[in-house]
Design brief:
about 130 residues; mainly beta; 3-stranded antiparallel beta sheet; Jelly Rolls; 6-stranded antiparallel beta sheet
């Protein structure tokens, strides 16, 4: 676990609370603009933190840097994605991702073709859904 001082030194800022259950921190590398059609950022999820269910209008690629990423597509079992592995989320797939209850997880999120939109946020992942891993 990182200290607050270490987190600040690494350049993380609080992520919008309305998109997560638990505490997540964000470091943005690339914001989309008229020339760059992508978003690249890093998210640090504290233990047990997860996104709400959501979709993307284009691919989202998640590169797991540290910890275990719990990832679930609607109607499918939860997957455990290890550090060094990735998942390519296809457009329109309802899903969530987050840290295991045992430790932090850091992933780099890459959003492609951002002119189509970034994220369509939905309902929170219930504790019952989360605990099915």
């Amino acid at each position: 676990m990182y200290t607050e001082k270490e987190i600040t030194a690494m350049g993380y800022n609080p992520a919008p609370e309305s998109y997560f259950t638990g505490r997540a921190l964000l470091k943005t590398y690339v914001n989309p603009d008229e020339r760059t059609n992508a978003y690249i950022g890093e998210v640090l999820f504290e233990a047990g933190t997860r996104t709400k269910w959501h979709t993307h209008e284009s691919n989202q690629i998640l590169l797991v840097r540290e910890g275990i990423c719990l990832y679930q597509e609607e109607g499918k079992p939860i997957q455990k994605i290890k550090a060094g592995d990735f998942v390519n989320v296809m457009p329109g797939i309802k899903h969530w991702h987050g840290a295991s209850p045992d430790g932090i997880m850091i992933h780099t999120a890459i959003g492609l073709n951002t002119e189509k939109g970034l994220v369509n946020w939905m309902e929170p992942v219930s504790d019952e859904e989360y605990n099915q891993y």
